[in-house]
Design brief:
Blueprint lengths: L12 E6 L4 H16 L18 E5 L5 E5 L6 E6 L8 E4 L2 E4 L2 H15 L5 E5 L18 H12 L4 E5 L14 E5 L2 H11 L10 E5 L5 H11 L2 E9 L11 E7 L7 E9 L3 H12 L5 E8 L6 H8 L5 E5 L6 H4 L4 E4 L2 H12 L5 H4 L2 H16 L1
Parallel strand pairs: 1-4, 4-7, 7-8, 8-9, 10-11, 10-13, 13-14, 14-15, 15-16
Antiparallel strand pairs: 2-3, 5-6, 11-12
Helix pairs in contact: 1-9, 4-11
């Protein structure tokens, strides 16, 4: 993917605030921004070319667990981007002398502290939240909270956020909560294909040898896109649930029924937005193997692995799947990165492109629809394989 070239001036000086747990991602984004901008210097726009676009922001905790944000430099007139990973459980703080893991609520509270510390001085504020806080609580089905919509309204109308950038939103229609504000749900399809091609040198990405499968009816949209771009057939599973009871916040799945053509001897790509416990995904893989799937590649934008990795270790040993690919948009525990069945999909450069493009107030259209980049990658892959 070529570095972007812009015809417009930036909206304002670029500044990036990394919340707790996002420091490493922010450093990588800063590296790509610095590298890209060094190749297109802009002498007349102050602060355009600099070593670091990171704003020094400190998140302090008192012994009682209360916190505050202190920004150590001026942000007046800046185009501010705030990075937050609400699902980074690797961050801790002291409360009454005991270590406490950050919860999504703690991360969200720090985001509001950062916005409060900016204090309305920035020219524009964009929140880059790869996985939406309370994203699964996006619609009301009974007397229950509507947390994701409430979060968006609070950020945009209470704290002055202009844009929210997220990835693979569980249901992007949640943007209707703030119709006057910017909201983009980005699909990391190109990066997934790039990582898969880098991992295997014998893929045959055609209708005869490969198939896309959605593990449930709710995730068909993202699967339809990739199946269409790659020219592959699409299958899906229907989840039969027990709606008479709730276990761990959802109705338990009784069984999976496959809907689609024969997959005998084909490689299968199973795509979902997140892996939580992983039980459903492993059951899908087991079912696919039983009906003749050759290799199974599981792709999910967000690998949470809330119940650990033992299920995946055993399923891998049993030959139920070949690789699991998830992005670095949420926290990846060091233990996960060492698993033989795991492939990490790096999104840092893509995030840098998005930030750079928005800072110039230019359209994201070419970044949001990566089909041309996917075609170019497949052409390159097939040419390399044919040599």
């Amino acid at each position: 993917m070529a570095d972007p070239q812009f015809l417009t001036e930036p909206v304002g000086k670029l500044g990036i605030i990394a919340l707790k747990g996002c420091e490493a991602m922010a450093e990588r984004i800063n590296y790509y921004l610095n590298k890209s901008r060094s190749e297109r210097p802009n002498d007349h726009f102050e602060g355009y070319n600099k070593d670091s676009y990171l704003i020094d922001a400190q998140f302090i905790r008192f012994g009682s667990g209360e916190g505050k944000c202190v920004i150590k430099e001026s942000v007046r007139g800046y185009d501010i981007f705030i990075l937050i990973d609400p699902f980074n459980y690797g961050v801790t703080y002291k409360m009454y002398g005991e270590d406490q893991r950050y919860s999504p609520d703690d991360h969200y509270a720090d985001l509001k502290r950062a916005l409060s510390a900016v204090g309305g001085k920035a020219k524009r504020i964009t929140v880059l939240m790869p996985m939406l806080y309370e994203g699964r609580q996006h619609k009301r089905t009974s007397r229950e909270s509507l947390d994701c919509a409430d979060m968006l309204r609070e950020l945009c109308y209470g704290y002055g956020v202009d844009n929210v950038i997220t990835f693979d939103a569980h249901d992007p229609r949640v943007q209707n909560a703030t119709p006057e504000k910017g909201f983009e749900s980005v699909q990391p399809a190109y990066q997934f294909i790039k990582a898969l091609c880098a991992t295997y040198d014998d893929l045959q990405i055609d209708n005869e040898h490969m198939m896309i499968v959605s593990p449930d009816e709710g995730g068909m949209g993202r699967c339809i896109y990739l199946a269409t771009v790659l020219g592959l057939e699409l299958g899906a599973f229907y989840k039969m649930r027990d709606y008479s009871r709730v276990v761990d916040g959802s109705n338990p799945i009784l069984k999976h029924e496959f809907l689609g053509d024969s997959i005998g001897g084909k490689d299968v790509i199973v795509i979902d937005d997140m892996i939580s416990s992983g039980s459903s995904m492993i059951e899908v893989a087991e079912k696919l193997k039983s009906i003749g799937a050759k290799r199974i590649f599981i792709y999910s934008s967000f690998g949470l692995f809330c119940n650990g990795y033992k299920k995946f270790d055993k399923a891998y040993e049993d030959g139920l799947f070949d690789k699991v690919l998830t992005t670095n948009l949420v926290y990846n525990a060091p233990e996960l990165l060492e698993k033989p069945w795991y492939v990490n999909v790096n999104m840092s450069k893509y995030c840098a492109y998005i930030i750079d493009t928005l800072n110039h107030d230019e359209s994201l259209s070419s970044l949001l629809d990566p089909k041309d980049r996917i075609y170019a990658k497949l052409k390159e892959y097939n040419e390399k394989k044919g040599k």
